[in-house]
Amino acid sequence: MRFFRVALLVLKKDFAIELKSYEILSTTLFFAVSCVAIFSFAFVKDGQAPVDAAAGILWIAIAFSGTLALGRTFERERYGETLKALLLAPAPRPAIYLGKLLGIVTLLFATEIIVVPMVAFLFSAPFFERPLLLVALLGLGTVGYAAVGTLFAAMLVRARTRDVMLPILLYPITIPVIIAGVRGTSALLASPVDEPVAMLWIGLLSFFDVVFVTLSLWTFEPLMTE
Amino acid sequence: MTFDFDRVELTDLSRHFGRRKAVARVSLAMHAGDIVGLLGPNGAGKSTLLGMLATLVAPTTGALTYGGKRIGEVGEGIRGRIGVLAHELHLYPELTARQNLEFFARLHGLADVEALVDTALEQANLADRGEDQVSSFSRGMRQRLALERCLLHRPRLVLLDEPFTGLDDRAVRLVADRLKRVAAEGAIIVLATHDLDVADGLITRMAVVRSGRLLCDVAASAGIRQQYRALVESV
Predict the structure, then answer these.
(1) Do A88 and B55 touch (CB under 8 A)?
(2) Residue A184: CA count within 13 A, CB half-sphere
(3) Which are the contacts of A168, defined by CB distance < 8 A and separation ≥ 6?
(4) CA distance B226 to chain A (A)
């Protein structure tokens, strides 16, 4: 129980800080919305968007804005070396990781609430024909991406080149998650909806999530000890 | 139940970063009530030693024991008996002083958090500023708050890295008195500082390190500056 209490405490603290400024939410959202808007200017001609483009653009917006959110969230912990203070507490260190992960996931969900309808509208994408499958794809994809991202962002807090290193480390490792997210979302946009293919990618995303979250929880403590 | 101890021992403790020896074969024993001044020039290995004592840096070789037990034997509970105040203050500037203290008290699993926080704010002379954001505080106010954050869980081992930075003369005296009281209650205080004037009369033992090696570990007496200069410049 202490494990989850600590995770929730860290999450609550991150919310309390974010509510003072809305700094990370606003920059993440602005970046994601700008990204989608620029793609729509480039690809939508005469009100017609290329088939399947919506799925890729949605996941690009999520991945790139996610990297921004990860960097900003841990930049806060770097200032005043508060991450060190968290690690010094007599609490399970993986619980601190989980708290940070929940914060990032919540932030990305908030971004997706705005970005998904925007992509659906600008690219005439029928995202909401199978809403539960869409929620499963987005939820699992976001957790998988954030699980790896949170671990790397925490590891890189002390590195001078953290802003360069985070995407270099993060994107190659999360490629399976991005591919599964894009292919699964494309299956939802097919006419008729290709439900078995979407389910296959959801299954794969679940597997990636289990592997990434387990590995991250397992390696967080040794990786955070110098 | 949190593990408790009354002595900390370093035996041939070393930490290498690649080929660089940040700390080399340091042996030192500290007991309850000691205020150990960890002195030495820049880059001597003081912060690495503090990092190892705080369980944040793993030793390359040697043994570090708390009450005779290694870190692996006592688990994460040992961190509940260690308090750290580093040069960076471990405070969230966006949160109020009260929110900061409450967060760290809950993270340490302390009971009766509100009363503890009220007492800590009074000790820091910030009782009337509890609801203000830390970002609005002066360096001295932050430093006092950070010290109380570090002492909130009544640690047995208190590790301080330049705790007097940015404090005015009165605040230095208040902090020094507070540290003496904490040591008198049975804590082991390790104080890394370059401020030898403040250390004079505060520390009970002087451990001088240079190039990662322990040059001496002696009882502190009046005139620390002369002792220190004689040691560092003669070796």
Answers:
(1) yes
(2) 28
(3) none
(4) 34
Contact, B32 vs B205, CB < 8 A? Answer: no
Enumerate the residues of chain B whose CB falls inside 8 A of the CB of residue A81. Answer: 86, 88, 90
The interaxial angle of helices A93-122 and A131-155, nearest 10 deg, is 130
Instruction: Give the residue numbers in B contacting A (CB under 8 Å), as ranges.
Output: 2, 51, 54-58, 76-82, 84, 86, 88-95, 99, 103-104, 106-109, 133, 149
Q: Do B92 and A90 touch (CB under 8 A)?
A: no
Q: Name the amino acid, one letter, at B209.
A: V
Q: Report domain B7-90+156-234's class.
A: alpha beta
Orientation of helix A131-155 relative to helix A53-78, angle to 10°:
40
Is residue A219 within 8 A of residue A151, CB to CB? The reply is yes
Nearest to A90 among B91, B103, B109 (CB): B109
Chain B hits for A88, CB-CB cut-off 8 Å, are 54-56, 79, 82, 84, 90
How far apart are alpha carbons B3 and A175 in whole angstroms? Answer: 44
Model-level ipTM above the cut of 0.90: no
B72 in Cβ contact with A221 (< 8 Å): no
Q: Are B130 and B96 in contact (CB under 8 A)?
A: yes
The full set of domain ranges for chain A reads: 2-224
Query: Could you read off the pLDDT of A187-224 as tens digits, one per residue?
Result: 998 888 888 999 999 999 999 999 999 999 998 888 88
Q: What is the mean pLDDT of residues B206-220?
A: 87
